[in-house]
Write a structure and sequence with these properties.
Layout (H helix, E strand, L loop, with lengths): L2 H43 L12 H24 L3 H8 L2 H28 L1 H8 L2 H12 L6 H19 L8 H27 L5 H24 L2 H8 L4 H25 L1 H8 L2 H12 L6 H18 L2 H4 L7
Helix pairs in contact: 1-11, 1-12, 1-13, 2-4, 2-9, 2-11, 3-9, 4-5, 4-8, 4-9, 5-8, 5-13, 5-14, 6-8, 7-14, 11-12, 12-14
Length: 333
């Protein structure tokens, strides 16, 4: 090979390495934004009309529906700005679009609803590390339904994740409201099942759909399901009307915007640096949630919480990819 060819190859490798590093930054940003999203939603739950123990179920469901509707609106503006708006209607009734719609039902009413109920009962610092298990759940579901093989390293990572959850719930903070804290931890675990199922279904749909379009379909279907099915059954329309002009509304709009940006950054990160590395960076939202909770709320940060979050994070890195491959950025797939 000539010297000119070697030089050209080196330039391409350097370009790919720079591209992959930027992808890692996007993925890390997605984790930080989602950590902030959880803390702000926790603050919104403590504002009227969502505050109050009798509303422990209705308030999070109403907030979850409003979050997905507003987030879908933000995504709609982004797709309009980038010329993707027509693709939403074209894609909605295709097979990939229907797979995304099915994933939205798991990720919205099951995933987001359980997530916010958990936030309300146990607090963001404790719920965010639990919900960061969703890629492990997705891996297990992919093994069962898509016949994907899980290697020994990933099994060890799954075991670490379970240990991390046990460490977090072993000794609740002194301010925890008794059994309601453990109920919140259990419901947060249900959110991981919803998001894990969504990941398997939506990934199959996004093989043929633009991620930003798929995300918009997901948010709109989830939001409409809340508004037209979940809230009428739960009797939440009255609360919805109160919430629109409440003191919690600005916090909700901010959280929905951060959530939309987090998803877009995550999709960009996956495109630039690969799914495994992007997912490993995204689940750092558990640590970001602890940091933001310590800075902006009065949540008690215990040693068990920090240790459990770190164990879950290490387990997730093992589940989503080989650590040696993650440090070799020349492979961007």
């Amino acid at each position: 090979m000539s010297e000119a060819s070697l030089s050209a190859t080196a330039l391409v490798a350097r370009r790919d390495l720079t591209f992959a590093k930027k992808g890692l930054l996007w993925a890390l940003l997605s984790g930080a934004l989602w950590g902030a999203n959880g803390v702000i939603l926790g603050l919104a739950l403590n504002r009227q009309p969502f505050a109050g123990s009798p509303l422990w179920l209705l308030a999070p469901l109403t907030l979850a529906g409003m979050h997905d509707v507003i987030s879908g609106f933000w995504n709609l503006l982004y797709n309009w700005r980038t010329g993707r708006l027509r693709e939403i209607g074209r894609s909605l009734f295709t097979r990939p679009g229907l797979m995304v719609c099915l994933g939205a039902l798991f990720g919205g009413p099951v995933g987001m609803g359980s997530y916010l109920i958990g936030l309300n009962l146990a607090g963001p610092a404790y719920v965010l590390p639990i919900t960061s298990l969703y890629p492990a759940v997705a891996a297990a579901l992919a093994m069962i339904f898509l016949k994907e093989k899980i290697v020994a390293r990933a099994w060890f990572g799954l075991a670490l994740c379970v240990c991390g959850v046990a460490v977090i719930g072993w000794a609740p903070p002194e301010s925890a409201p008794g059994p309601m804290f453990f109920l919140g931890i259990g419901i947060a675990a249900l959110a991981t099942l919803g998001w894990g199922a969504e990941g398997v279904l939506s990934t199959s749909g996004m093989d043929l759909l633009d991620p930003a379009v798929a995300l918009n379909i997901r948010q709109l279907i989830s939001g409409c399901t809340y508004l037209l099915v979940v809230l009428p059954l739960a009797g939440g329309w009255s609360m919805l009307g109160q919430a629109v002009f409440s003191e919690a509304a600005p916090l909700l709009c901010l959280a929905a915007g951060l959530g939309a940006c987090s998803y877009l950054c995550w999709y960009r990160g996956m495109n630039m640096t690969g799914v495994s590395r992007a997912m490993a960076c995204n689940v750092t939202y558990a640590l970001w949630g602890i940091l933001f909770s310590a800075l902006f709320t009065d949540t008690e940060i215990t040693a068990n919480l920090v240790a459990g979050a770190l164990v879950i994070l290490c387990g997730m890195v093992l589940v989503v990819g080989n650590p040696r491959e993650m440090t070799s950025l020349r492979k961007t797939a």
